[in-house]
Amino acid sequence: MSDPISVAGDGALRLVSLYKRFGPVAAVDGIDLTIPSGSFFALLGPSGCGKTTTLRMVAGLEEPTSGRILIGDVDLAGQKPYRRPVNTVFQNYALFPHLDVFQNVAFGLRRRGVRDVAAQVEQMLAMVELSGYEGRRPAQLSGGQQQRVAVARALINNPSVLLLDEPLGALDLKLRRQMQLELKRIQADVGTTFVHVTHDQEEAMTMADTVAVMNSGRIEQLGSPVELYERPRTTFVANFLGQSNLIDGTVESRDGDLAIVAVPGGRLAVHMDRMPDTDQVHVGVRPEKLNLTPADQVSGTASQRNRLAAVVTESRFIGVSTEYAVRTDAGLQLTAFVQNAGRHQPMAPGAEVEVSWDPAHTFALDVRQAADAGLDPAGAAL
Amino acid sequence: MSAPTAQPPGLVHPGLPTPPPPPPRLRSRRLPYLLLLPALAWLAIFFVVPTITLFSTSLQTGSIYEGYALTFSFSNYLDAWSRFWPQMLRSLLYAGAATVLALLIAYPLAYTMAFKAGRWRNVLLILVIAPFFTSFLIRTLAWKTILADNGIVVEVLNALRITDVLSAIGLTTDDRILATPLAVITGLTYNFLPFMILPLYATLERLDVRLIEAASDLYASPFAAFRKITLPLSMPGLVAGTLLTFIPACGDYINAQLLGSMPATAMIGNVIDAQFLRVLAYPTAAALSFTLMVGVVAIVSMYVRRAGTERLL
Asked: Which of A154, A189, A243, B70 has its CA 20 to 30 A from that of B252?
């Protein structure tokens, strides 16, 4: 029997210059992070980026090579996992196969010598909508039900931080969507800090208040989903979260609010607060921000929009939208998503169009970063 | 057994749709029985028939000179039990002690092999199996040298005064080990140890380490995690290992013969051996064999029920 150490201070989880090396490989390469108490936080990144290792260090299942892990004012480094006030929902759940649902959920309470666990277990099972399943073995449950048991088994201990390691990875798409909302509801109900590790950008953006995008053991960018999506600061984030069109250009002028960047075949305006200091930049814009106007319907050049003349090379009907590939007159390949809102006339390959978008939706990134960072090697969007 | 077959075409009424073709799975339904056939034949010839013969022999009376006749006399059993119950009891005790010792040695080893050995895992596995490359008899005879009166084991135990303790509890006599119960139990433990290690290793190796991590995450100390997760989940291997050790150890007579001293350490196997091959009292030997068989089955089924392995997974 071992009681978890109690937490003092604001209850926030702080990672201070955290490193983890496996031999010559730096799995976690210097992370500094503060996760406020009560937030739903996502660590997002491709496999091998160090997100799970980070989580396991918080849980105490890996020892950091250096750095500190604090909850409130208490340093957890060196504490055994069974002494830490955190609980984990494991990938593939790791439910105890020889124990029934009740015993699985009661496990943590019993190890701490809590009496009268029955009422608490019942309450917890009611919250995850599994009342009546007490006597079932994990093997007799569906994937979604096992997932709920795993959440209940962890949450019943009232941890300061709940760690979720790819908790929805084993579920099919429909069930995953449903469980995303379910987890969000549970988090809102209990108010516990959730730290959610995932490689699924949609999952991270749907669920989390704050997302940290990780790449090669470091945090690339941290912010709200909207912030990350609308104002990516690195090509990795621009490509990993959704898709981006990146166009190489040279800064021509910086004048007041707007910078003008010369790109092949035209000039593009970018708001100054979205510009890096360098003169060589990638100008970026999200595919759904692009407007395609048939060349013969272009009406003047009065409004302040970024414009490029192009030819449609490919069109794919997706359902809610149509995805176009266009080639500008200067040979740039761009992708545009156009909503199928009824007004839109489908354009066939070969159609001449004007591509235009609002400078407010434009961002620029330091050209020294690889333009294909964060892209799936297969070329498809993640 | 006749299988439904398609009707000949002439019988089909022209106005009716043609009957469905015979289920194509017919062959595969018979297949399991075909596959079982060799094993069933083996069991019938080498288990069922001998068991019946043994049982019928145990109910015969007569003598080797006049011949034996089946008289359905249970007196053989009463006679055998009253004369040889000490050897029967001794067999259970020795086999039980050897099983417990083998478990105590095998579990830590299997655990280490499964979880801690890393690249040494296969080396250890080979070391466990390697003794099988020498004959059972030779390996047992080797223990005569190891436990010899002027051997190093006896000298060390004597020097440490451990033989005094062992003598006090009746395991050894006169500061020697050979020809004592301890030697027989040692031999049994040694000879059946691999049968304990291998099933234990097989279950532990399959155990998902994340379950232990999950237990640790849920406030279980390493000991609690072992008691609540590792041990219960390794029960199938533990039960298989104890049975594979206990059952053959009960009927063994080589260890008692080579390492023990007759009649002080005689086990039931030695008695059956003598009754069958030297005294030629076949009914008594058969009654003892049958008693041993039924007794072991009874003990094993009680044990399996207590261990509750049928509830696992």
From this structure: B70
